Amino acid sequence: MEQDQISKFIEHLYQVHKAEWEATPSYRQAVDWLSDLYEFLFPNNRLNRQSIYEGQLKKNQIDLENILLSYLDPADINIDEVIYKFYASLEDIYQSLRLDATKTFEDDPAAGSIHEVIVSYPGFYAVAVYRIANKLSQLGVPILPRILSEHAHGKTGVDIHPNAQIGVPVFFDHGTGIVIGATSIIGKNVSIYQGVTLGASQVSKILSDVKRHPTVEDNVIIYARSTILGGRTVIGHDSIIGGSVFLTKSVAPYSSVFNTHQLRIEVKEDA
Length: 271
Prior knowledge:
271 residues; alpha/beta; UDP N-Acetylglucosamine Acyltransferase, domain 1; five-stranded parallel sheet; 8 helices; 12% strand; Trimer_LpxA-like_sf
């Protein structure tokens, strides 16, 4: 490649990257904001004055405002309104997460306390980030919710699209490998184990505005490595989906669905 071609290529890269940078929040700033918010809701350090909480929250609000202003046009989205509505909903988010943590503690015999769930369970952290990202997505904020959810994905192995609808409470046990698609609907009091996928039965860009992922009604348990596909697939309330099940059709309420594969074990006698 000759020098003038290199120069033209570099200029092209710069212009493309400049446009992309201007339309994207800083990943580092986004994660720092999320970490500060999580620390505000569930602090690891003792805070001995109420004023510290107030100062933390005010700083967090300013940081979110700066992030949004860095890549959004105020003519396209009312940033002040987004800030107000998000922080007005923060108590509801917190109360939902306390219920999520309580369900995890009650359903997992290995959990020693609700606090242990909050400070150490990857499934709980993934749900916490989802509830924050989901609220921002509901308020019309682009890109940032997905950055937050992908941060949680990388940290926990749980991939929840911020547009999914997940009721309260929910319990993700172990977490690793869980995938929840964008148009999934999950009811209340649902338990999902590691490796479960709620996915689309087909992948096509023309289906972007169509419900592509399953609906899971209230009080359902889905055990490890099960795959449930399709926007018309409904798992009826109070059902149990056993491990390693592959489903592309609905099941009625109070159903029990299990994989019929039989494991055969032979023991050889000593020669």
